[in-house]
Amino acid sequence: MIPLPLARIAEITSGALTGMADPRAVVRGPVVIDSRAAVPGSLFVAFKGDRADGHDFAAQAVEAGAVAVLAERPVEAPAVIVGDTMAALAALATAVCAELTGSTVIGVTGSAGKTTTKDLLARLTARIGPTIAPVGSFNNEIGHPLTVLKADETTRYQVLELSARGVGHIAELARIAPPKIGVVLNVGTAHLGVFGGREAIAQAKGELVEALPADGVAVLNADDPLVAAMAERTAARVTWYGRAASAAVRAEGVTVDDRGRASFTLRTPSGAAPVSLRLYGEHAVENALAAAAAAYELGLPVATIAEELSEAEPRSRWRMEVSDRADGVTVINDAYNANPDSMRAAFGALDALAGARRRFAVVASLQELGEESDALNEGVGRLAGGAGLTGLVVVGDGAGPILAGARAAGAVPGVLGGGEASAPRDGARTVVACVPDAGAAAAALEAALAPGDVVLVKGPRVAGLERVAEALLGGDRR
Q: Where is the Mur ligase N-terminal catalytic domain (predicted)?
């Protein structure tokens, strides 16, 4: 963060300093919302949540070195009192970003793949200048301004992930940090029930390209018709990526190895270079192409882009993390979140990685799908039931549609373990079991697994299925 005296912060946020706050005291960052993360020179923002009220931890933050607290009511610490801490945080980030005229903002949005693409692109931009990017999926009305506030006078690139839970959300985030380059990945079924349809999702995602200036660049997926249509909604220049021959930056000759990692030729207007991804799943190709197209617009040579993409390891947790136990069991932890599109991608990765090995999957009912919830969850069951699984474990409430879909695809109810789940040979059918929670799922799997088996763990964030993967790996949180 750029250094700011408390008097300036109060001016930006329309706040009032409490009597004990020194207007000349300088905040140098970071800006934090967890008092345990406070360090000398930081600013603690007190949010009132469902489980805790940050105002109760104001003194603790200041004792740890925070210069002051951004709060909505007086606290036992130096503070800037504002009417709404969320609005004040956004105002502060907007002001700071406006002062960093030498920094280029790159926004990334889409229904799936935002975090992976952001991680890849941040790695690429770091080759040409100091870069800030969110940790994990810090992409909403709190995480977005907190990330922007990490930037300072040395920052050349801000690679930001923008999410939406309704029309207007991305436009608001873009006002905080106006993008020069906007990357749109896809329009899928994530949060379908919240938006009411894919057209509404497209409307929301397209707010990113609408925010671009005339001298900016919209990086659009040539393979997604709803994304391609966004070209009409921007004054910026449009560049295309994808697998289509018409895409300026495209993948040619895609192959997948026995660990589910893709290789391809990266083709650009100025040449080509080979890429061998260390990321798992063929769907990572699209994320790599999106990052490559944005980096190409920034002037990175194709050979450098290919080199960086080939060296990139998974950076954010619980997204296609592949770990091998000592007994040869492979656990695919893709439990950060799930929607019908990402489920298909995950099962595709499982198929490529498992090969002839026995395969298991742990899933949970997908959320926020609206009126189509039952039909889409039944589709997940059909997908799993037809995936050649030895065993399928469905966790938690709302399992009925998944179970129905799995049974329609030929799966049979049963209990995993004790020989119930035999190898899927000679037409053997998948055994499907329903359990109440992650602990029960891990126990069921441990009873059924044999050396060399492969397990996919995939579900919505609320299900907490990452705990299944961690239990299977003996507490390993890689």
A: 31-81
pLDDT digits (tens, 9 = 90+) for 118-137: 999 999 999 999 999 998 77
Q: Quote the DSSP letter at residue 23.
A: T
C-alpha 295/C-alpha 358 separation (Å) is 40
DSSP assignment of 300-347 equals: --HHHHHHHHHHPPP-STTSSEEEE-TTS-EEEE--S---HHHHHHHH
CA-wise closest residue to 380 among 396, 361, 397: 361
Domain boundaries, the chain: 4-83, 100-311, 321-472
Arithmetic mean of pLDDT over the chain: 93
> Whats the size of the chain, residue-wise?
478
- Quote the pTM value: 0.89
Which helix (DSSP H) or strand (DSSP E) does residue 391 occupy?
Answer: strand 391-395
| pLDDT greater than 60 at residue 249 | yes
Which residues, listed in sequence order, are joined to residue 27 by a DSSP beta bridge? 4
For 335-363, write each residue's pLDDT tens digit. Answer: 988 889 899 999 999 999 999 999 999 99
**Of the CATH numbers 3.90.190.20, 1.20.120.450, 3.40.50.720, 3.90.1170.20, which one belongs to the domain with range 321-472?**
3.90.190.20
Binding-site residues for ATP, in ranges, read 110-116
Buried/exposed 60-89: b ≥16 CB within 10 Å, e otherwise: ebbebebbbbbbbeebebbbbbbeebeebb
Domain 100-311 grouped into CATH 3.40.1190.10: yes
Yes or no: domain 4-83 corresponds to CATH 3.40.1390.10 = yes
Binding residues: 110-116
Whether pLDDT at 420 is above 90: no
